[in-house]
Specification:
Helix content is 36%, strand content 25%. The protein is of the alpha/beta class. It has one domain: Rossmann fold, CATH 3.40.50. The relative contact order is 0.17. Bound molecules: adenosine-5'-triphosphate. Adenosine-5'-triphosphate (ATP) binds next to strand 2 and helix 1. Keywords: ATP-binding, Nucleotide-binding.
């Protein structure tokens, strides 16, 4: 892979004696949609926090957008977007106020923020909703908006931590159309999900079990390797041996 957008080598994080992420290695290319799967407690969030410059690894190496996670976390933060599992927009601000706030955090100028706000509200068909409080919007709208806000500063990579949790299949499908669009424009998408149908939409999928990456391939490649009809079957077979989780 030429100049991978994400490169992890033996990346490890311990909490005391417990190894949450255990020597994982993988690369993600520019414009790729990379699905990062694993059962509860497998280590996905911990790995993602290391890659986004939020948590220092215990061992191993990683670069994101060409920057080193140990030495250049601030540069990484400027080049990535992040949509967390816990919803990140401010409930008691309006749609437009949230966009303005994040535009400021991402260091965009006033003119650029205004232009981006107009574009975004139009693109999402949120004209009628732009002055409504976020708290009053349905979850699906909030998620679509949070995704667009994570892209405001045109990052190289966007990290999505269970972006579609709790919404209906039609809204999830619309959300995935947004994902395809940004990937086509060249943005790398790193996404965790518990929905196995969504794993099928990814270019490649990795499956974590107890801190390790036990499988990594295209959805078709994984199904072939495991002689499975769908990714859910692959996942269940791998996760069955897991010690962690609910
Ligand atoms: N700050 C911490 N201190 C101690 N243990 C932690 C810490 N953060 C995570 N862990 C442990 O590391 C393991 C991996 O957690 P992590 O949140 O990365 O898993 P996950 O795959 O993201 O799970 P989920 O799907 O439930 O979010 C879990 O056993 C968790 O309890």
């Amino acid at each position: 892979m030429n100049d991978p957008m994400i490169k992890a080598e033996e990346l490890t994080r311990k909490f005391g004696d417990f190894t949450a992420v255990d020597h994982i290695s993988f690369e993600v290319g520019a414009g790729e949609i990379f699905g990062f799967l694993g059962a509860n407690g497998a280590g996905k969030t911990t790995a993602m926090r290391m890659l986004t410059g939020l948590l220092v690894p215990t061992e191993g190496e990683a670069t994101v957008a060409g920057y080193d996670v140990y030495k250049q976390p601030e540069q990484i933060k400027k080049r990535i977007g992040y949509m967390s599992q816990k919803f990140s927009l401010y409930e008691d601000l309006t749609v437009r106020e949230n966009i303005r706030l994040y535009g400021g955090i991402y260091d965009l100028g006033d003119q650029q923020i205004k232009q981006k706000s107009d574009e975004l509200v139009n693109m999402l068909g949120m004209n009628e909703l732009q002055n409504k409080m976020i708290g009053s919007l349905p979850l699906g709208w909030k998620q679509k908006l949070a995704f667009s806000v994570a892209l405001l500063h045109e990052p190289d990579i966007v990290f999505l931590d269970e972006p579609t949790g709790g919404v209906d299949p039609i809204t999830r499908r619309q959300f995935w159309e947004q994902i395809y669009k940004v990937a086509e424009e060249g943005t790398t998408v790193f996404v965790t999900t518990h929905y196995m149908d969504e794993a099928e939409y990814c270019d490649r999928v990795s499956i974590m079990v107890d801190g390790n990456i036990d499988a990594l391939d295209t959805p078709a490649g994984l199904k072939e390797e495991f002689e499975a009809d769908d990714i859910e079957e692959v996942f269940i077979r791998l996760a069955r041996g897991a010690e962690r989780g609910e």
